[in-house]
Design a protein that fits this description.
single chain; alpha/beta; Peroxisomal Thiolase, Chain A, domain 1; nine-stranded mixed beta sheet; 11 helices
């Protein structure tokens, strides 16, 4: 899984998402199919394609169980004969689904693939641990790996704290980055950057914007208590909150792209997956992007317009920015997951949609030809992909 197949190009011609909502909030009554199938149809409409021409649907999800890709495909009217595959590489699931779709197209196994990710935490089944004896009561299992202490900080936070200590990323820097992310998102909303990206699931203003917390000032952030006392640097103001939502891309073969009139699109140039130690999982997006750069000798860093990621914390985002010398508007220029939230298996697919908006929909898209998505996943895994605007 080191690069895109050489047999043929794969083009992303459309990419859409829902607004992201808090569990129990915006999407509280929506099952995974009712959350996602309207986005599938909106993306196909953007591409100028009918549901009947889709050859496969591939979907990233971590909480629904079973094969939700099949349920979504049927709900979207793709037809009973359309194969469906669900992918679970935790937070990188959505990007992996899109990459699998691109490989299927490149290998000639499909001409049109719908792929992405989604999470409906409000309606997902609960996980319950089996009692070890007749005298033990069942207990609910969380979304994080079990560390034996239900009251401890989430593993993602402790891993990110370790990354911040190792790299010397201070609390002040993290808070400043978080505030700047919110300001970027406010500016992007004012410039209507999300209008053609978000699919409102009903006619209401709330359906067109992410349900995110508001940050007023650095003083507000500075007053928050550390999650890991007494000297931790992570707070609920500089980490990403769990959200739910869906993001979908339409991937087509060269002949389909040509038949559509060669619209502005993104072509998959390369992709990589990289593991790190489980205790270092916060570093995984850095390791994946390093491998992506290292294994593509014909690619120059100067050609890279921007990197999108769904970060678990400001510290993780700063680690990526510092490692690659990215400017303020080269990493998640419209704000990242710190603002919009972190929808687990959909997180990396949302980043792909954000990259599509910036590289394909925006006027400045052609200044540099390449953009990248990088994503960390539970267990110390990183996935990164490079896309060329065509």
């Amino acid at each position: 899984m080191t690069s895109a197949p050489a047999l043929g190009p794969a083009y992303i011609v459309a990419a859409r998402r829902t607004a992201l909502g808090r569990p129990g909030g915006l999407h509280k009554s929506r099952r995974i199919e009712s959350l996602t199938s309207p986005v599938v149809l909106a993306a196909l409409e953007d591409a100028g394609l009918e549901p009947r021409v889709v050859d496969e649907i591939i979907f990233g999800n971590t909480t629904a169980g079973g094969n939700p890709a099949r349920i979504i495909g049927l709900a979207a009217g793709l037809g009973e004969g359309v194969p469906a595959l669900t992918v679970d590489r935790q937070c990188a699931s959505g990007l992996d689904a899109i990459l699998l779709g691109a490989r299927a197209v490149a290998l000639g196994e499909a001409r049109v693939v719908v792929a992405g990710g989604g999470e409906s935490l409000s309606t997902a089944p609960w996980r319950v641990a089996r009692p070890k004896s007749l005298f033990q009561t069942p207990r609910f299992l969380g979304l994080e790996p079990e560390d034996g202490d239900a009251a401890a900080a989430p593993h993602s936070v402790t891993a990110s704290e370790a990354l911040a200590r190792r790299l010397g990323i201070s609390r002040d820097r993290q808070d400043a980055y978080a505030l700047q992310s919110h300001l970027k998102a406010e500016r992007a909303a004012g410039e209507r950057r999300f209008v053609r990206e978000i699919v409102p699931l009903r006619m209401a203003a709330a359906e067109a914007r992410d349900e995110s917390a508001e940050v007023q000032s650095l003083q507000d952030l500075a007053e928050l208590v550390p999650i890991v006392p007494p000297d931790g640097t992570h707070t609920h103001g500089n980490i990403s909150a769990l959200q739910e939502g869906a993001a979908i891309a339409v991937i087509v073969a060269h002949e389909v792209w040509t038949a559509l009139g060669r619209p502005h699109a993104m072509r998959l140039a390369a992709s990589v997956t990289q593991g790190v130690g489980p205790s270092e999982e916060a570093r995984a997006p850095v390791a994946a992007l390093e491998k992506l750069m290292r294994t593509n000798s014909g690619f120059s860093r100067d050609q890279l317009a921007l990197v999108e990621m769904s970060e678990i914390s400001a510290a993780q985002a700063l680690a990526v920015r510092d490692a690659f010398g990215l400017g303020e508007n080269e990493l998640s220029p419209d704000g990242g997951a710190l603002v919009r939230g972190y929808p687990l298996g959909a997180a990396s697919a949302v980043s792909l949609v954000r990259l599509f908006t910036r590289m394909v929909r925006s006027p400045e898209a052609s200044q540099r030809p390449y953009g990248a998505v990088t994503q960390g996943a539970t267990g110390g895994l990183g996935v990164a992909a490079l896309f060329e605007v065509v």
